Automatic annotation (TrEMBL):
UniProt cross-references to PROSITE patterns, sorted A to Z: PROKAR_LIPOPROTEIN
Top-level taxon of origin: Bacteria
Region (Disordered): 131-157
Protein name: Uncharacterized protein
């Protein structure tokens, strides 16, 4: 009888080991482990990216100027610190002016200064077209450095 029991025990042990291995591999088969590995690799490569780190002297200069910006600052003083003309400068009838500096945060992410009557009301990672669209509609966004204008300055949409 012991000879019949040994193969059954052996097969049961092999079955449990197989289930354990398959259970451990399930995340890899479903893609979550692969996705996690891809995300980690992407983060590592992004950290080495010269645009993300601001390795370019131009990027460092503009990022340093933006790090010192406060809402209500005179826009001309900040533009003087940046020391280059904006790629795009747009304005509207409500008195808002937007200055866009491309390739500051990454190859395709621009730094934007939005001013109203010469004072900064928004700064951060955006585009002038997005910011001017939000001002036209009288919307207040939730981006870094943005504040809501009081009702006397908010443009009617």
């Amino acid at each position: 009888m012991s000879t019949n029991r040994t193969p059954a025990t052996l097969w049961a042990a092999i079955g449990f080991a197989t289930l354990g291995l398959l259970g451990g591999c399930a995340p890899m088969v479903s893609g979550s482990m692969a996705e996690g590995g891809f995300s980690a690799a992407k983060s590592a490569f992004d950290a080495l990216s010269p645009t993300a780190a601001g390795a370019d002297e131009r990027q460092k200069r503009i990022q340093a100027a933006f790090n010192e910006v406060n809402i209500g600052d005179d826009v001309q003083l900040v533009l003087n610190k940046i020391a280059e003309p904006p790629h795009e400068k747009t304005g509207n009838a409500q008195g808002y002016t937007c200055y866009e500096f491309p390739g500051v945060y990454s190859a395709d992410e621009a730094a934007v200064l939005m001013a109203h009557e010469g004072k900064i009301v928004f700064y951060g990672n955006s585009s002038c077209s997005d910011e001017m669209r939000s001002v036209r509609g009288g919307e207040a966004g939730s981006k870094s450095g943005e504040i809501s204008a009081d009702s006397s300055e908010t443009p009617a949409g």
